[in-house]
Amino acid sequence: MRGHRLCQSGGVRILHVSDCYLPRLGGIEVQVADLVRSQSAAGHQVEVATATPGGRVAGVHRIVARLPFDLPVHPRGGRHLLRLMAARRPDVVHVHTGAVSPFAWMGVRAAVRAGLPVVVTVHSMWDPVTRLLYRVLDAVTGWSRWRVVATAVSHAAAVPVRAVTRERVPVDVVSNGLDVSAWRPVAGAPPAARPEGPGGTEGPGGAAGPGEQVHIVAVGRLAPRKQPVRLLRLLLAARRRVPRHIGMRATLVGDGPARGAMERFLRANRMEGWVSLPGRYSRERIREVLDSADVFVAPAPRESFGIAALEARAAGVPVVARTQSGVADFVRPGEEGLLGRTFDELVAAVARLATDRALRERVARHNRDTEPARCAWPAVLDGFDRAYRLAAARVAPAVRVARDRKG
């Protein structure tokens, strides 16, 4: 029986449904691909259904329509997904949604019609407009009564989901996963050299000494919703608060439609000499940048998780982020970094870390010596296994009723 299989330690047949998947590169795409690899390595039989065009890959079913800009949507996706589920007979369907994910919700509907256990993972922060949309859809379709199970990638992301479902859907928090060991500093290696001018020594009480240079790093897509120009304003405000004898340089890794506005801001404020926009980097090059970083900044207020901030934390870098973002799940004030609720508080946090070398080194040492265990793949897989079992338990009564009626 399907429910019995999900309660055993053996392999489970899992079908992931996601609008976006490789070869597209983004937070959801990469995270789902890493989850697929980790579950496969754990002995599960894992397949993916996606509306993203791409080459033929074993276990990836591309349900693609010819639409402008290769939009990951299919007008008859539900019908195709229902046929796929009937043919592949998964033990559980795991659906991945962003703010609005039409193809993914077609997968939810198809799995419910097929009587399969369904887990929906919400990868984004539902803003007021999105919450209103889902309430309207619930009024029309009654989706919150479909016996699905939901997970969110952080406690911050779970709050708006619970507000919409009003406890009709179980909502657990299962972190995004990271191969923590791949980001850890090399054991026994000294900290990366910090460029210093003449006389660069530690000042009284651990304060930064003359000539020291502090390297600030941020990684992410340069999209308007991430407010990258506001990040530049933050750096400029922090530079004005930091004594001039402390050098500051910033590397903002990533690319996107806001790059032009950022370049104009840098020119207008004469920041090109200490702020660089090198473009998109591979994971290997990001690790190299983090090796020389003193502070990592993730200032977006509606960050549902912050995988780049987690990578920096795992690499031993102090993190500055919003109190109300998903980053707060793995960064505690004064432990793994500093948090701020407002723009001014973020500016103060960056300036404090740039000025207080002793605090910087204490936080960095803590991050190097302790792993974010709840974000490591074994913990993440355990969390999803629990969600799968709960989904099977919720759908079992309905399956028995349907069998009784047929009998």
From TrEMBL:
Domain Glycosyl transferase family: 212-368
Compositionally biased tracts (Gly residues): 197-209
Residue segments, region Disordered: 185-210
Keyword annotations: Glycosyltransferase, Transferase
Organism superkingdom: Bacteria
Cross-referenced InterPro entries: Glyco_trans_1, Glyco_trans_4-like_N, Glycosyltransferase_grp1
GO biological process: carbohydrate derivative biosynthetic process
Biased composition (Low complexity): 187-196
Entry annotated with the keyword Glycosyltransferase: yes
Occurrences of domain Glycosyltransferase subfamily 4-like N-terminal (ranges): 26-181
Molecular function in Gene Ontology: hexosyltransferase activity
Signal peptide span: none
Keyword Iron part of the UniProt annotation: no
Protein name per its UniProtKB record: Glycosyl transferase
Organism: Sphaerisporangium rufum
